[in-house]
Amino acid sequence: MIEVRDLTKRYGDKLAVDHLSFTVEPSRVTGFLGPNGAGKSTTMRLILGLDRPQEGTATIDGKRYDQLARPLTAVGALLEAKAMHSGRSAYNHLLFLAQSQGLPRRRVDEVLALVGLTPVAHKRTGGYSLGMSQRVGIAAAMLGNPPALLLDEPVNGLDPEGIRWVRNLMKQLAAEGRTVFVSSHLMNEMAVTADHLIVIGRGKLITEASTEDVIARSTDKSVRVRTPDADRLAEMIAAAGGKVVRGGAESGAQNGAGLLTVAGLEAPRIGELAASASIVLHELTPLASLEGAFMELTSGSVEFGAAKTEAAHGSTS
Amino acid sequence: MTAAAPVTPARGPADPAAGRHAGFAGLLRAEWTKIRSVRSTVWTLVIFVVVCIGFTALIAWLTESNWFGPRAAARNVRVLSDPVGFILGTGIGLGQLAIAVLGVLIITSEYSTGVIRASLLAVPRRLPVLAAKAVVFAALLLVVTEIVAFCSFFVGSAILHAHVPVALGDPGVTRAVIGAGLYLTVLGLLALAIGTMIRHTAGSISTIIGVVFVLPILTGLLPSSWGAHINAYLPEQAGTLITHTHQTADDLLSPWQGFGVLCIWTVLALAVAAYLLEHRDA
Predict the structure, then answer these.
(1) What 3-state class would DSSP assign to A124?
(2) Do residues A133 and A260 share a domain?
(3) Minimal CA–CA distance to A149: which of A114, A109, A125, A118?
(4) What are the angstrom distances between the C-alpha of B29 and each of A90, A110, B13, B25, B136?
(5) What ipTM score was computed for the predicted complex, to two decimals?
(6) HSE (CB half, 13 Å, CA atoms) of A181?
(7) pLDDT digits (tens, 9 = 90+) for B217-244
C-alpha cells in the first residue's frame, strides 16, 4: 500500500505538487492520470525519495522510501525508459542493481526471461529500441520481486504488441495481490488498464474513484442520434437547449448522414422530443467516455492547455 | 519487439526475494560491476598507461641521447639532483589528465545517462553509493597507478642508467615511486568529488583541469611570497612533492606534508560532494 499525505513540492515559486493526498491499494491497478505537467512524475519521484518534498509524507507499507533496507525488494519502479548507460549491457545494468540488494545472479536471468530479452542481454543497450529499453526498465522494476510497482508512462513509445504485453503484465501483477500504480496522460489507455483512478491537475487531487465511477460521473454525457429527419430534429433539440453537432466524432463523411451528436440533453428527453414531432429515430445512444470525463475534470487545470477553445470543447456543460 | 514473453513472474509476492542482506559489500560489488562494464573506463586507463610509460621512455631517451648536447649541463644537474622526480614527472604530469577525466566520468556519466536514479532507487540513503564508488575507484586506481609508477621508474632508470645511477634502494626513491601512485589515486578521488558536485561532464573536467593545471600558473603570477605561499598549498603543487626525492630550498612543505595537504583538499571536496548529493533532488 502506498500512502501520500499532504505532499507538497515547490520548484522555485512554481508549485509542482500541491498538498496532495491519496492511497494506492494493493490487488488492483491504480491509474495516475493527469495532463502533461500535472505533477505525476514529480509525485512518483517524491514517493521514491529522488526529490525531497517541502511538506508532507509518502510511505510504502508505512515506511518512507529511504527507510527501506532493500528498497528494490519492496517497490519496483520504472521512471524514464532510457535511464541506462548506452555502453553497458542490459545484463550488467541489472547485475549491479541485483548486487546492490544482495540478490543472486539467477534473479537477473529470471527477469531477463520474464521480459523476453534473454537473447540480447549481453548487447550494449545503446543499440536497443525504445520498446526494448522499456522492457529493461520493467525487468529492473521486477528484479526484487516487489509487492508494489510504480510505473511512469510505461506504454510510451511501445508498439501495439508491447502495449498489450505491459497491460497484461500489470493486470497479472495486480491479480497476484501486488500494488500497481501506473501513470499516464492517455485516458483511453487507463480506461482499459486501471481499476481505480487518481486524477490530478496542477499538482492537486481532482478525483479519486473507481474507473467506472469516473466515467459514470462524467457530465460530459453526449447522445448519438440517428434519424432520417436530422434537420428537423436538430432544430427542435437546439430550441430545447441542447447542443447539436452534425455527424459523429468517430464517423467518416459517409456515416455522417442523419447522424447527430447531442450534448446538454439526456437521451429520454431527446426521445420525447422526437416522439412529440413523430420523428423516426434509428438510433439513440448515450455516450460516456473517460476522455470526456478527464477533459472535464482537468479542464480548469491544464498546465499547457490551448487556452479557452480547447477547454470549452472538452467541457460542453 | 514482437516476441511475447511469459507474463508469470518467478515468484509470488508473498515469497520474499531470495538472497542475503546486501550491505556495503553488495554496494562494492555493484560499483565494481558498473566500472568494469563500461568501455570508457577501460579505455581511459589504457590511455593512462600508454601515456605515462610512453612519455617517461621518450623523455628519458631524449635526455640520454642529448646528455652532452649544448646547454645540457644545467639540466643534467637538475636530473642528477632529483632523478626520480625527473623520471616520473613528465609521464605523470600528462597521465594525471586521464585519471582526472576518469574520476569525473564515473559519476557524471551516471547523471548524463540517468543511471544515477537507478543507483539512488537501489540505495536511497545515497551516501553509501558515493562511499562505495570512492572505495572501488580508489582501489582500482591504486593498483593501476602503482604498477604504472614502478614500470615508469624501471623504464626511465634503465634508459638513463649510464649517466644517472638511481635504484629503488636509494634514499627516498621507493617513497617517491609509491608516492606517485598515491598522488594519482587521491587526485582521482578529487576529480570524483568535483564530478559529484557539478554533475555535468564538461564543466567538471574544465574545473579539475583548472585546479590542477591552470591555478598554479595564475598563483605563480601573484607578487612576492604571497603567490609562493598560496602556490605551495594547491592540490597539485603540494601533492606532487611526494614524487620528488630532493627538497629544494623553496619548498614550504615536506613530501608527506604536501601529500597531506592534497588529502585534506580531497576530503573537504568529498564532504561537500556528499552534502550536495544528500540534499539535492536527484
Answers:
(1) strand
(2) no
(3) A114
(4) 17, 20, 26, 6, 9
(5) 0.88
(6) 30
(7) 888 888 777 788 888 899 998 999 999 9
Q: Which residues contact A26 (CB under 8 A, 6 or more apart)?
A: A1, A147, A148, A174, A177, A178, A179
How far apart are alpha carbons B256 and B242 in whole angstroms? 6
| Residue A179 exposure: Cα atoms within 13 Å on the Cβ side | 20
Nearest CB to B282: which of A50, A100, A144? A50
CA distances (Å), origin A195, targets A33, A84, A169, B56: 12, 31, 14, 69
What are the b/e assignments for A136-170, b being 16+ CB within 10 Å? bbbbbbbbbbbbbbbbbbbbeebeeebbebbbebb
Q: What is the pLDDT of residues A155-186, one digit of tens each?
A: 887 889 989 999 999 999 999 999 999 998 88
What's the confidence (pLDDT) of residue A141? 96
**Cβ <8 Å between A110 and B29:** no
Is B13 a domain residue?
Answer: no
Asked if residue A129 belongs to a domain, the reply is yes
Minimal Cβ distance to B281: which of A51, A161, A172: A51
Q: Do A52 and B34 touch (CB under 8 A)?
A: no
Give the residue among B62, B103, B279 at the shortest CA–CA distance from B201: B103
Residues A239 and A220: their CA atoms lie apart, in Å, by 20
Under 8 Å CB pairs connecting chains A and B tally to: 164
- Express each pLDDT in B242-268 by its tens digit: 999 887 777 889 999 999 999 999 999
How far is it, in rounded angstroms, from Cα B132 to Cα B30? 9
How distant is the Cα of A2 from the closest Cα of chain B, in angstroms? Answer: 16
Question: Of A169, A194, A216, which residue sits at a domain end?
Answer: A216
Q: Write out residues 80-119 of A within 8 Å (CB-CB) of B.
A: 80, 82-89, 92-93, 95-104, 107, 110-111, 113-116
Specify the number of domains making up chain B.
1
Whether residue A129 is found in the same domain as residue A250? no
* Structural domain for A102, as ranges: 2-216
B235's CB contacts (< 8 A; 6+ apart) are B187, B190, B211, B212, B261, B262, B265, B266
**What does the alpha-carbon distance between residue B4 and residue B14 come to, in Å, rounded to a whole number?**
26
Domain encompassing residue B90: 25-279
Distance, CA of A15 to CA of A53 (rounded, Å): 11
Please indicate, yes or no, whether residues A227 and A185 belong to a single structural domain of this protein: no
Q: In the structure, what pLDDT confidence band is assigned to residue B177 with cuts at 50, 70 and 90?
A: very high
Are both A147 and A258 inside the same structural domain?
Answer: no
Q: Which residue of B has its CA nearest to A102?
A: B22
Helix (H) or strand (E) holding B32: helix B23-36
| pLDDT, position A186 | 80
